[in-house]
């Protein structure tokens, strides 16, 4: 079985557009195990916090700065995610944090336009050499609030972020100007698909108005040379011990069994 390994063309697209989409980054059986694990994991509700959008909708997320002995950490450490993030960012990537995003049917809120580096800048990161891998646990469609991105917007640099509803979002005036000059793309995904994206890429999502959930796992990385100059809520550099891709399915099955 072969697993995704980025090529020069992927790196060129990432540099140009600020993202690449990888179909079947995780195989069907692997994704099924991840979905079953997340939905059986009672620790999610204990860690979960909510964010309110400008229209009053609510999205729940469970964030962790630690790589504990669980399946989320195995995804973070998998070669097909971490090693490819290193290639795309051009420097050794390390775990910055990860989060399960739980956008429930009919009530899941929107995320306002933002750049991840718009937040991370304040945590002592001098450069935007940071990125995330969004992994679809459920199907992501326009109806259930898939991600929207503005290709090439990472070249604009960091935009000021302001309070928008109960969230912090990018300056709406700048976003509107960007949308006059750059395209808008809806990133619809099947379970197991992955989206690698740059820390300065403008992205958002709509509310989930469908009867289908939209759960996802987002693995966030910083680079070794961008080690924060001060302590913050997210960790400083620590090298990752990578998990071989061929070992992931067995690891996932064992982790799921551990929840029983």
Shape summary: globular
Order of helices and strands: HEHHEEHHEEHEEEEHEEEEH
Numbering strands along the chain, what is their spatial order in the largest sheet?
Answer: 1-11-6-13-4-3-2
Broad CATH class? Mainly Beta
How far apart are the termini? 29 Å
* β-strand number: 13
Mean pLDDT comes to: 94
What integer value in Å does the Rg equal? 17 Å
Q: Percent helix among the residues?
A: 25-40%
Helix-strand category: alpha+beta
What is the CATH superfamily label?
Answer: q2cbj1_9rhob like domain
Which residue ranges are poorly predicted, with pLDDT under 50 across at least 5 consecutive positions? none
Write down the CATH topology: Jelly Rolls
Strand residue content: 25-35%
Domain count: the total is: 1
Biggest sheet layout: 7 strands, antiparallel
The DSSP helix count reads 8
